[in-house]
Design goal:
alpha+beta, Sulfite Reductase Hemoprotein, domain 2, 3 domains, globular, binds iron/sulfur cluster
Length: 377
């Protein structure tokens, strides 16, 4: 089955989206991090003007839910006061994921700054088009969705690589901005005018990359990120991607900054007495379960994915080493990769499939909750 097409736009702080539980806005934390003060303020604003629920998206963004037409302007003003939302949408136009432990003012940081500064000069890009800055000593982002990857080659040179192509081209800090603009203009001018490609890899399935853009391989040194201790920091995850305002406050009170990163993880200072609401190790079975917003937050959902995720996690049916994706409909927003077990809502009942995407043909359809649990035993 084909993947359902995406909406032609994404919410931002300046453009709220109507959802099942009110208006929703999306914050793209600059350099993927919030200071403790910014996080405290967002938690307070979310309680005061929203419904106190925040989502962590698979691109390391933060969504505030449950706003109304009356409270949205107050929320926006509060975010602008702490430098989280600007007066125009230029910073919101760029989808940027940074490697998790990127040091302040490192080359990756400086590349991110150049991308933010150049965003106003970009050609018109599809809404999901994004960059992964992965030029540290190890590559953490090879599995995440991105269109242009900024990496290193085996001799430590800066590399720009198109997603879907095994090789990239060597760049330098001096030429980085012009190289990126050239790459984006190539993507734009190579488009199918009648049915434009939304992602770089889709374009590359249909046309060859010019040799000048595909000469050099990236470094092989890959690493994954999971909850635990790493680089003298604590990596945690939030069960089913949904954070409550009081949990954000707890983190903000105990960590100087909060870094939003891949796998719906957060990087914080070491907190000795962090509550069990958070996932602190990859052995926590809740870490295997991904759930989209579901009912009542999403108007397209016909099942309550978060409730089901909690019930499943407590039922001991979750098997270690298997991935579970609970999706309120076949759009599969929460996970763009295959899962070992995929449970998809349809007309209030459950479809079940193995080793696939939410939009694939189910192996079992229209199951009741009891029948679903019996199939999972
Ligand atoms: S996958 Fe989930 S969040 Fe996405 S549209 Fe469907 S129900 Fe809503």
């Amino acid at each position: 089955m084909n993947k359902p097409s995406a909406k032609g736009w994404c919410p931002s702080t300046l453009i709220p989206m109507k959802s099942g539980d009110g208006l929703l806005i999306r914050i793209k934390p600059p350099f993927s991090r919030l200071t403790s003060r910014q996080a405290q303020k967002i938690a307070i604003l979310s309680e005061r003007y929203g419904n106190g629920f925040l989502d962590i998206t698979n691109r390391a963004n933060l969504q505030i839910r449950g706003l109304s037409q009356n409270t949205y302007p107050l929320m926006l003003k509060g975010l602008q006061d702490i430098g989280i939302s600007g007066k125009n949408d230029v910073p919101d136009r760029i989808n940027l994921v940074l490697c998790p432990f990127i040091p302040y003012q490192s080359i990756g940081w400086r590349c991110a700054k150049m991308l933010y500064d150049a965003a106003g000069d970009f050609p018109n890009l599809p809404v999901k088009f994004g960059f992964a800055i992965d030029c540290g000593r190890k590559r953490y982002l090879s599995g995440i969705s991105a269109d242009i990857r900024i990496e290193r080659d085996n001799s430590n040179k800066l590399l720009i690589r198109f997603d879907g192509c095994k090789k990239g081209f060597v760049s330098s800090e001096k030429t980085f901005k012009s190289d990126i603009l050239e790459a984006l203009n190539w993507f734009s001018s190579s488009q199918n005018k009648k049915l434009p490609y939304e992602r770089m890899h889709q374009l590359l399935m249909n046309i060859d990359v010019p040799d000048i853009y595909a000469k050099t391989k990236p470094q092989e040194n890959k690493k994954s990120l999971n909850p635990g201790f790493e680089e003298d920091r604590q990596v945690i995850s939030i069960p089913f991607g949904q954070l409550k305002a009081n949990q954000l406050l707890q983190l903000a009170d105990n960590s100087q900054e909060i870094i939003f990163t891949i796998n719906r993880c957060l990087i914080i200072d070491k907190i000795p007495k962090l509550s069990g609401e958070f996932i602190k190790t990859k052995n926590d079975l809740r870490y295997n379960v991904t759930a989209c917003t579901g009912m009542p937050g999403c108007a397209s959902a016909s099942i309550d994915t978060k409730r089901l995720a909690l019930k499943l996690s407590e039922s001991e049916l979750i098997q270690f080493g298997k991935s579970y994706h609970l999706s309120g409909c076949k759009k599969g927003c929460a996970l763009q990769t295959k899962s070992d077990i995929c449970i998809v809502g349809e007309n209030g009942s459950y479809n079940l499939l193995e080793n696939g995407f939410a939009w694939d043909e189910p192996k079992h359809a229209s199951l009741s909750e009891v029948a679903l649990f019996n199939k999972l035993v």
